[in-house]
Amino acid sequence: MAAGVSEQVPEAVAPPPGNVRFPLVDGLRAIAVLCVVAVHVATESVEAGTVAGRLLLHLNIGVALFFLISGFLLYRPFIAHRTGGPEPPAIRDYARRRLLRILPAYWLVLIAVIVLPSVAANDDGNWLEQFALVFTLTDSTGWACSGCALAQTWSLGVELTFYAALPFYALLAARLARGRSKAEWLRLELLLLAALSAAMAAVQFLQPELLPAALLGGSALGFLTWFALGMGLALVSVARGEGDGANGSALGAASLWAGAVAVYVALSLWLPDTPFLVDRGKLFIAFMAFGLICLLVMLPAVVNVAPGGLPARLLSIRPVAWTGLVSYGIFLWHLAVIRWINTVNDDLAFIPLFVLVLAITVPIAATSYYFLERPLLRLKNRRLAGSSALRRVPAKS
């Protein structure tokens, strides 16, 4: 359900000025981060070969959901003007918003890791690369710091490459949309995203030697399909018009989630009971299925929302939405907490370990949000004198 542009919302999740907000996405963030925490807890605590283990060990699907959310929320402001919405954000404003959102909280946990090396040791001691968030791009395999409490931040490097590339893609897409009707630019750009995704998937799964492993594993190139699905949702959302999603079917929204659960269960029971897949065929099927599952999960929150439907009710529960608000801190801190708990007791079962990790991580994340992230994020919408903007490109609708 889209919220009005004038609604007062927390700085961490406020869209660029003049753009609509999708409050149910907060609940999606909560789902994504809980999946990420669960899979890391599962790798430490579940028994291999069990049904529960198979279902838990593929919850790294939370990363795919985060990437779809980024594709949707970041691309939509660049194209909202096509149907009468606000102009695209200025490049400098866009960059400032992204850096303020990602780096300060990340630097805080990185400093904590440095101070507490016995809890979360760095693999190679190259802290400069980690402060710049480029360490996943420089490792020969695309996966760096695999044994430390920042292993999950490889996805932040991927996100940063997407942030950097998105304005350039937006400029190209604006030229393609110029002078075309709504139906024309929607169809053309969806085809473009599909073609780019297919090309990258072909390289990644058929001819991976064509690109360095670091680019495929540590940049948006290797995960373009997931970002493109979110961007496609943004295109459909803009073409439908702001707020049109509130006319969806409650039964249809619940069916989408039921379908997502069914696909996930079937996939998890078929795949090996590990999140670290090596068979290229299984990896390809999991990759594409993850995208489909996350698309089904996202649709009721951003395009086909029905007031009173089960997905809308669940995503709008206050504790769920609040968890989404502080989800970045949970993402950043949970692995360090797991490592610390294991230094005290490394024999906990999944449920007690999961509960204990959240009990420690959530207060830390809330503290990070309220005392570091939120004060800094109040600056993200302030215009800087002389900032250059992407100008509105008229498009027929």
Q: Write down the Rg.
A: 21 Å
- Cα end-to-end separation: 22 Å
User: What fraction of the residues are assigned to beta strands by DSSP?
Assistant: under 5%
Largest sheet data: none
Roughly what is the average pLDDT, rounded to an integer?
A: 86
So how many helices?
A: 16
Q: Please identify the structural class as seen in this structure.
A: mainly alpha
Tell me what you see in this structure.
- There is one protein chain.
- The chain is mainly α.
- The protein has helices at 24-45, 51-56, 61-79, 91-115, 127-131, 135-138, 154-177, 182-205, 213-218, 224-240, 250-270, 280-302, 310-315, 318-325, 327-344, 350-377.
- The chain has one domain (11-377).
- Helices cover 64% and strands 0% of the residues.
- Helix 11 packs antiparallel against helix 12 and helix 15 (327-344) crosses helix 16 (350-377).
- The longest helix has 28 residues, at 350-377.
- It is globular, with a radius of gyration of 21 Å.
- Mean pLDDT is 86; it is low at 384-397.
